Amino acid sequence: MLIREAKTIDYPQLRQIYLESRRQSFHWLNPEELNLQDFDQDTQEEQIFLVEENNKILGFISLYVPDRFIHLLFVHPEAAGQGAGDLLLKQAIKVLGTPVTLKCVSENHKALSFYQKRGWKAVVEEGEPGAEYWVLIYE
């Protein structure tokens, strides 16, 4: 697997991964309200890295560098469990240094477990009822 910075030419695949992953995993959202353009809107002013294998993008991570913040980490559902998420997290820590923070929707138990198994600590739960999320930190 190769990690590199995303280029504009990669965006069609990244948009598709973002859309498909959220439609499959984010059961608390209305899938009809999700669209391909969400990726462009949600990653503005962020540095994006992707992981690929055999010229196929498996996942991506978007970083808001000024705050040492991981905004998005998504792996295509078909590539889940193959190590792409681990590689992307390691790249983020390499680029941002520590401490690094991220937010994870409280209902996304699979993602919370993924981060906690890798040494991330849940610091505080925030958000409105029905839209709670955990702030996690890696030091």
TrEMBL record:
Listed PROSITE patterns: GNAT
The keyword Aminoacyl-tRNA synthetase belongs to this UniProt entry's keyword annotation: no
InterPro entries xref list: Acyl_CoA_acyltransferase, Bact_Acetyltransf, GNAT_dom
Listed SUPFAM superfamilies: Acyl-CoA N-acyltransferases (Nat) (SSF55729)
GO molecular function per UniProt: acyltransferase activity, transferring groups other than amino-acyl groups
Location of the N-acetyltransferase domain: 1-139
Pfam families per UniProt: Acetyltransf_1 (PF00583)
Keyword list, A-Z: Acyltransferase, Transferase
Signal peptide extent: none
Presence of the UniProt keyword Acyltransferase in the record: yes
PANTHER family: AMINOALKYLPHOSPHONATE N-ACETYLTRANSFERASE-RELATED (PTHR43877:SF2), AMINOALKYLPHOSPHONATE N-ACETYLTRANSFERASE-RELATED-RELATED (PTHR43877)
Name of this chain's protein: N-acetyltransferase domain-containing protein
Organism: Bacillus safensis
